[in-house]
Amino acid sequence: MTLLYKQESYKIQGAIFEVYKEIGTGYLETIYQESLEKELALSDIPYQAQKELTIHYKGVPLKQTYKPDLICYNNIIIELKAVHRTKSSQRDRTRTPGPNTKLYESYQYKTRPSSKLL
Predict the structure, then answer these.
(1) Helices (H), the chain
(2) How far is CA 33 from the centre of its chain?
(3) 81 CB contacts (<8 Å, ≥6 apart)?
(4) Exposed end of the chain (fewer CB within 10 Å): N or C?
(5) Model pLDDT, residue 85
(6) What letter does residue 94 receive in the DSSP assignment?
(7) C-alpha distances in Å from residue 57, one per residue of 62, 63, 75
(8) Residue among 47, 56, 60, 65 at smallest CA distance from 11
(9) Rounded distance, CA 80 to CA 46, Å?
């Protein structure tokens, strides 16, 4: 399987690793989100936080919306998860190893973003 937006994903992962190196583990997701937003800005990575996305079912918009933690480059969804230990079921769905950061291929929404990072 080919990774979409390879260069952009690599740059985002670099920002995520920088946050991890700076503050480590043990915090709530809100701390990591704010830290990552600052690092993305420092790295000149365009992003939007908590943008509400409309989901369609068979061409009809749903009442429920989806608000990912971050959208970078208008195409890459970032979902932050602060966990004590990654479950094997989470590891099985991932392609890129890293502390607290995994690339998920399983989310395929009919929204503009077409890549997802967790």
Answers:
(1) 6-23, 29-42, 88-92
(2) 10
(3) 29, 100, 118
(4) N
(5) 64
(6) B
(7) 7, 10, 20
(8) 47
(9) 17
Strand order of the β-sheet with 76-78 is 47-49, 70-72, 76-78, 115-117, 103-104
Q: What is the pTM of this model?
A: 0.70
Coil vs helix vs strand at 31: helix
β-strands 76-78, 115-117 pairing: parallel
Residue 22's pLDDT is what?
95
Q: Which residues of the chain have pLDDT under 70?
A: 1, 84-118
| Distance of alpha carbon 103 from alpha carbon 108, whole angstroms | 13
The whole-angstrom separation of Cα 2 and Cα 105 is 10
- Round to whole Å and give the CA distance between 53 and 74: 12
